[in-house]
Specification:
217 residues, alpha/beta, Rossmann fold, three-stranded mixed β-sheet
């Protein structure tokens, strides 16, 4: 099965691309929606926008909070999904829960079976070799005191979400301190990867740092 990932900055702004990715089906495709990264926040408007857009596209969405779940519980809850959606929020908190629950293994198993992975902000940062870009703005706080920032390594580059021109210097300077390629995504952009071949989709200039051409089309 093809391994497919759609890594977004704000998923609701770019999810129309799913119309080209998903098979025409008489049944509603099931989305396992992972809201965990948003747990530390009382208000979650970005997450509600993403869920609303998924529903507008005719998808069946159900929440699976990985906090306090075991690996076997997650396998059972997510066994019949077509799409695995990991929402935005605090990336450090998310990564800690990913490790303690065993979600990292479950997610890789699902992707290997052909389940489409969609990340929004923190859910996209999670997929790289590390989540170090999450600290570059000093907005996503390491509230869990995480020492090891190793990500899921589903892609060989880092995502910097919510990019605006005002962050150009910050990303340039921090990119010099990492050995990994960095893709800076505006809220109108995403990275689409199919079997290791990736391309930036959406509106606006494609902005990469430390990049290598063989990865990006």
């Amino acid at each position: 099965m093809a391994k497919r990932l759609l890594l977004t900055s704000q998923a609701s702004a770019v999810l129309d691309v799913l119309k080209e990715l998903l098979p025409i089906s008489s049944k509603k495709l099931k989305v396992g929606f992972i809201p965990t990264a948003a747990n530390p926040y009382p208000d979650k408007p970005w997450m509600e926008k993403d869920k609303q857009k998924l529903a507008e596209l005719g998808l069946e969405v159900f929440d699976v909070d990985i906090n306090n779940k075991s690996k076997e519980e997650l396998r059972n809850l997510l066994k019949n999904i077509d799409i695995l959606f990991v929402a935005g929020g605090n990336t450090f908190y998310l990564l800690e829960k990913v490790r303690t629950s065993g979600f990292d293994e479950v997610a890789k198993e699902l992707i290997d079976k052909g389940v489409l992975y969609i990340g929004s902000s923190a859910g996209s940062c999670l997929t790289g070799p590390t989540i170090e870009t999450s600290s570059w703005k000093n907005q996503d706080k390491n509230i869990v005191g995480l020492k090891d920032l190793t990500g899921l390594n589903l892609v060989p580059f880092l995502i910097f979400p919510h990019f605006k021109n005002e962050w150009q210097k910050t990303v340039e300077e921090n990119s010099k301190k990492t050995s990994f390629p960095v893709v800076a995504l505006t809220d109108q952009q995403a990275v689409l990867c199919i079997d290791g071949k990736c391309k930036i989709v959406g509106e606006g200039e494609k902005i990469t740092f430390n990049s290598f051409q063989e990865t990006f089309q």
